[in-house]
Amino acid sequence: MSFLGFGGGAPQISSEQKIKAAEAELDMVTTMFNQLVDSCHKKCFDKNYADGELSKNESLCIDRCVAKYFDANVKVGESMQSLGRSGTLGQNLR
Amino acid sequence: MSFLGFGGGAPQISSEQKIKAAEAELDMVTTMFNQLVDSCHKKCFDKNYADGELSKNESLCIDRCVAKYFDANVKVGESMQSLGRSGTLGQNLR
Amino acid sequence: MSFLGFGGGAPQISSEQKIKAAEAELDMVTTMFNQLVDSCHKKCFDKNYADGELSKNESLCIDRCVAKYFDANVKVGESMQSLGRSGTLGQNLR
Amino acid sequence: MDQLNYKEQQEFQKILYTNLVDRCFNDCVNDFTSSKLSTKEDTCLNKCAEKFLKHSERVGSRFQEQNQILMNQMRGGK
Amino acid sequence: MDQLNYKEQQEFQKILYTNLVDRCFNDCVNDFTSSKLSTKEDTCLNKCAEKFLKHSERVGSRFQEQNQILMNQMRGGK
Amino acid sequence: MDQLNYKEQQEFQKILYTNLVDRCFNDCVNDFTSSKLSTKEDTCLNKCAEKFLKHSERVGSRFQEQNQILMNQMRGGK
């Protein structure tokens, strides 16, 4: 499972490293998915749970929220690249 | 350490898998415990730390908060089961 | 990378354990660093992103925020020790 | 890599589950004069859980679709 | 599986510790005209840490009790 | 132990990245009458990302300095 291009560009790695990379990948997709669930829940629902069903408005809101989250993701990735900041942050902790 | 029935129903697994399952179990209990500490802290305290001791009201609030959190946990687990949603969510990411 | 004295006081451990301890160490530094980034972002910025540059005031605020976070860290560590609570919490879950 | 194995699925669900409990507890339970859930809190928890679950499933479906589109754009998947 | 080993305990405490620092920093420190903690902030941090610690311990005790009750209900523990 | 290896750096960046996306999305995107980002949201995301990145870098530098000071105080580092 590749997501947003992450996990693709690594140099030659062993098969054990591949497994570890795949696990890290999954961790990140899981994290991002949960943040997405959480953010769109905040954006699309009030805290008044009168009904267990999704209303039509709520469903529409969710769909748009996910679409916009993906666009925001791409946008932010491009910003980072155009600022030339793809390798500097982790190095700060060296 | 088994918690809320998780970790019990897995199929035949090797002893290495058992260790991994136990680690995952512990991760979840840790996560849930920290969420519980956090939620009840929000519910039972104001941000005015005049005193380092727990007042009688705060102590009572904590006890009830934990009890209710457990009940909510069970309740939510039952809801999930009655909706027949115990295996579908992870599959969405397949 | 040792941080705030954590990771120093462990008893005799094997080299595999050392690697695991180092990984746990890194996890914690990463967690703390991210909390720090997050807290100081909340303290020093409003949500109105008119400009991509850090203003002089924002830069000053960040520097002071990090310094105070470190002091708070030391302070809280001392409080914990003076309360004699360095080994009891994890044991609660035994 | 395109499938979550048994363990991963379990893990994924547990994270979702703990988030669901936490979210619904925080939104529905606010009275600590008793240690028993009131009828109102109880109903709220049920609706909240049901709604959160449906929400997550819908997000999951859209997530997959968007991810697929993105991967097709990048190079037709892997 | 009923005991946390040395490493797990350490880890558990570190999570608690980082949460404690973060919580108390956010609640107590709000003045960034100086890089030194004021006396007021300092006192607040001490009280907050002490209170959070006692809070966590109390939650821990209740957590165990409730967990025990639940496990007894399920099948007398494992 | 003083260096993050390739994998660790990647991981570190991913966490930062997901936090950045989440933070800027939450602060900048609030209109769900359309599924396309408005020009205003788009600009806000760019500025927010740039600012958050510079913020993180500055925090990183200060973090290192403070950590160094602390380790020197403790016993001149390890």
Task: Provide structural commentary.
- The complex is a heterohexamer, with 3 copies of chain A (94 residues) and 3 copies of chain D (78 residues).
- Chain A is mainly alpha-helical and 94 residues long.
- Chain A is 61% helix and 0% strand.
- Chain A is built from 2 helices and no strands.
- Chain A has helices at 15-44, 56-82.
- Chain A starts with 14 loop residues before the first helix and ends in a 12-residue tail after the last helix.
- Mean pLDDT of chain A is 77; it is low at 1-10 and 87-94.
- Chain D is an all-alpha fold and 78 residues long.
- Chain D has one domain.
- Chain D contains 2 helices and no strands.
- Chain D has helices at 6-28, 39-75.
- Chain D starts with 5 loop residues before the first helix and ends with a helix.
- At the A-F interface, α1 and α2 of A face α1 and α2 of F.
Elements of chain A, N to C (H/E)? HH
Radius of gyration of chain A: 18 Å
Instruction: Tell me the total number of β-strands of chain A.
Output: 0
Instruction: Please give the share of residues in helix of chain D.
Output: over 70%
H/E element string of chain D? HH
Total count of helical runs of at least 4 residues of chain A: 2
**Rg of chain D, Cα atoms, Å:** 18 Å
What spatial form of chain D do the alpha-carbon principal axes imply?
elongated
Oligomer: heterohexamer
N- to C-terminal distance of chain D: 10 Å
Principal-axis shape of chain A = flat
**Chain pair forming the biggest interface:** A-F, 42 and 44 residues
The unreliable regions of chain A are: 1-10, 87-94
Report the span from N to C terminus of chain A: 30 Å
What's the arrangement of secondary structure elements?
The complex is a heterohexamer, with three copies of chain A (94 residues) and three copies of chain D (78 residues).
Chain A: H1 15-44, H2 56-82
Chain D: H1 6-28, H2 39-75
Organism (chains D, E, F): Ogataea philodendri
Subunit structure (chains D, E, F): Heterohexamer.
Domain Tim10-like (chains D, E, F): 7-65
